Structures are given as C-alpha cells and as structure tokens.
C-alpha cells in the first residue's frame, strides 16, 4: 500500500508564492534588461600590449642585474662551491664542498648538517665508465643497422 503525505497548507502556499516570484523576476529580466556591452578589440589589444611591456621590463631588469654581477648568476661568486654530491635516500645526502683550498665531506639530513671528513683540495678522477649520450646513440643505431 502506498502512503501519501500531505504537506501543510501554509507550506504549499509559501512554495507557490516563491515560485511565482522567481518566474516573474525572470520574465522581467528578459524583457527590460539591456545586455552588457562586450569587450572591444581595442581594449584587448591595449591589455596585451601592457602585459608585453611589463614582461619585457622584467626580462630587461634580470639581464641588467646579471650584467652588473659580472655575468655570474647570483650566489655563485663566494668562496663556497659544491663539487659533487650523492643521494643516500630521499631525505639524506652526502655533499663535497670546496672552501678555498679545502674540501669538506658533509652529511645532510633533515634538521642537521655534519662535517664527516676534511680533505686537501685535489682533482676528481674522471669516471671512464660513463659514456656520453651521443656515443651510446651511435652504437645503438649501428647495432640496429647490422641486424638488418
């Protein structure tokens, strides 16, 4: 058996009044409303030229500051230089730092930096096991051509 619930008469009258008010407001907006003017092409061109000018000023300022710094990017002109590093995990690494004529082996973990060892400045051995990408690509293409 289906049961029907009756809504109170005050609720249904209020709902009808609200619905009529919304419909009349909608029809009033359609008949008497003047559409807002669109954006003209000249305004868009003016906006794009202004944006281009601002971006150009930013690039010119960066170029000028780099020239003032002697062609070096900022932060590379001090006595400190990172020679190399090794990632141990996502949050831990070992870094070789050069300070004057001394190399420091530094361990870096979240919230802490420790000096692990101090060395005299030296030359890093060239790792001959790594091949440049160009040589590797040439070898792969030669192998592919030999197989044909």
Q: What is the number of beta strands?
A: 4
| Main sheet record | 4 strands, antiparallel
- Tell me the quaternary state: single chain
Helix and strand sequence: HHEEEEH
Mean pLDDT: 78
**Radius of gyration of CA atoms, rounded to a whole number:** 36 Å
Tell me the distance between the termini.
Answer: 80 Å
- Major sheet strand order: 1-2-3-4
- Give the overall shape: elongated
Which structural class best describes the helix and strand composition?
A: alpha+beta
Q: Low-confidence parts, pLDDT < 50 over ≥5 residues?
A: none
Approximate helicity band: 40-55%
- Content of β-strand: 15-25%
Please tally the helical runs, counting DSSP H or I stretches of 4 or more residues: 3
Keyword list:
four-stranded antiparallel sheet; 3 helices; 148 residues; alpha+beta; elongated; 4 strands; single chain
Structure description:
- With 148 residues, the chain is an alpha+beta fold.
- The chain is built from 3 helices and 4 strands; from the N terminus they run ααββββα.
- It has helices at 9-32, 41-68, 133-147, and strands at 80-87, 93-99, 102-109, 112-120.
- A 4-stranded antiparallel β-sheet has the order 1-2-3-4, with no helix packed on it.
- The longest helix has 28 residues, at 41-68.
- The termini are far apart.
- The mean pLDDT is 78.
